[in-house]
Prior knowledge:
Distance between the termini: 71 Å
Strand content: 5-15%
Oligomer: single chain
Number of strands: 10
Shape: elongated
Amino acid sequence: MAAAQRGTTPRAITIAILAMGGEGGGVLADWLVDLAEHNGYLAQATSVPGVAQRTGATVYYVELFRQADVPPGEAPVLALGPVPGEVDVVIASELMEAARALQRGLVTEDRTLLVASTHRVYSMAERTAMGDARVDSATLLEGCRAAARRFVAADFGRVAEEAGSPISPALFGALAATGVLPFTRGQFEDAIRRGGIGVAASLRAFAAGFESAQPAGAEGELEERTVHRAGAGPAPVAAPATAAQRSAFPERVGPRLAALHERMVRDFPEVCHGVLRAGLLRTADYQDVAYAAEYLDRLESVRDALADRSAASLDVLSETARHLALWMTYEDVARVADLKIRGTRFERVAAEVRFAPAQQLEIEEFMHPRVEELADAMPAAFGRWMLRSPWARKVVGRFTRRGKVVRTSSVGGYLLLYLVAASRAWRRRSLRYQVETGRMRKWLQAISALAASRPALAREVARSQRLIKGYGDTHARGWGNFRRIMDVLPALEARADGHQQLQALVDAALADESGQKLEQMLAAVQP
């Protein structure tokens, strides 16, 4: 086996496995050790735990040394961890983990076989960013392809899911298909059987992974290229779709909204009907039909302010309609509770964990409302008193400081969240509703004032609403950034490139959670 030799000096075969918790990385390492020890090799396995997607997956490291190459009375010295530039095989259970292996120097173009699943489990940095911080999967794939001597990639996550198994046996099968290790397919499968747990499902996933990694019409050693077999894994993952590509507007609204739909068709341009229809459904679901009517009422001021029906003007109306629907359905405690007890959420969670009829599913929510969020849900006068009163803040804080775990799948927990969700009946009297309504009014006035003379700038003012999202600290940070940007709007209006500057300011706020980049740009804009 070429991988076991360098010149005439015997050496170990080095294998690094990067897997997140629950994906069976340790099981895969155990299979490799068992495979080696039953077929004439010495083996050593170690692991360095990570914190899943926060600082990287756990790295399992395996070294195999052929027993026949060990001189009598001696023993090989095997390393305890992977050394950059000295790894023969890297197996990554997710695409970002493959990229992290490149970053650590574990993958080299003159030596390393890289086996990776193309599916994504987004990292914490991608999930918690203010904007869309997803890394382009196509870029990750291209980097892997360029860095490795050989790159085998397929959606092994989907392969494993269809086989009813964790991803590790699918990756084990892909490794077997490469022919890089001096063992037969049967010997790989025997290692799974000796494990004795979930053997049938693991063998199914192994076979599917083996088939996914096979180039058409070939057996054993793979060509030095990325392998994507049709039906077993996707081609290189494309970049995230644009907003236009993601749009799939509903075509019907149902009988409750029929009258509002007729009003929309009569009073608004046809090119805007798709987004308006989605806005009607979202606002009615959030509150009621009257709230959906308020949605159209608020848009009329922008429609009437348009200079004409040109593409630029209608773009202002469409963007305002889209972002107004998002703003009007802000996430308060009633909304969050409502979303957590919906049947579709239980179905989604059950599907994600592959819930079986013989099993019992329990879902627990960690609730940690701040005093501000509770005050927002109260009648406006009482909510303001809560925020002003040190005594009230202290008392409420004693009950919210540590948070509370609510089991949504229990009768008691479900009823508790049901009652919280039902509080939307008096949402219009709440402090939060009053505050958000005032903010929306000023935003719409700014758009209307610019719609005729500066449609490009008006459109960017409408789009700046995407800064305002979530709840708690996320919402407070987004609103603060939005307010600071709106403060310099008069200065931007005086500039011919004001719309470009506004877009750059919003992008800076979304890209940098600390706010330093935004502050630097704002300083440059100030008159």
